[in-house]
Amino acid sequence: MSKVKDIFSYSSRWDSIGLNCAGCKYFQAPSTWPDVDKQSRCKLHNISLAVQIGNNGYMAGEWFCSSFEGGADERAYKEFLSLKPKLKKNVLYGDYGKDGNLKEIDMNKLKIKTFATENRYGGMTVNERLYFSGLMDKYDTAVEKKDVAEVIAILKEVELSEENINAILHYLKLRREK
Hints:
Elements: E1 27-28, E2 41-42, E3 47-48, E4 63-64, H1 74-83, E5 91-94, E6 103-106, H2 126-133, H3 136-144, H4 148-157, H5 162-171
Helix pairs in contact: 3-4
């Protein structure tokens, strides 16, 4: 991973950035604090945020990603916005890294494992599934190009049944290739 320079002023409370996952709208907190079982997670990226939780169950440092949306210190948020174009999509960034750079963790190493019988999209509409999986633009492009194989692959990736996929193809006036 290429390093990202830490431009934050650390002007928030106790020399902190003032911006972290706990303030993000995608943060799913545990039912009680401290989070000694390390249940904190990101709903958008479907990752565990245990890396942010110390042994005492409280936050250990400040972490964020390029998708951050939510409450933050005003100055920190402006600094984040200026840094955002340089941030990679599947990287979790942390404060006080080495050599003046932010800490970086590949989100693929934090993915929450799901079992084949578990549908992580249960109760979501197709649009919600596409949005939360990050496949909305890819799906729209496949539909626009009438790429039936790609549309089917994307719909399978968001765990739709064959029956639902067939209904969507019919609605879109797309036919399966035989």
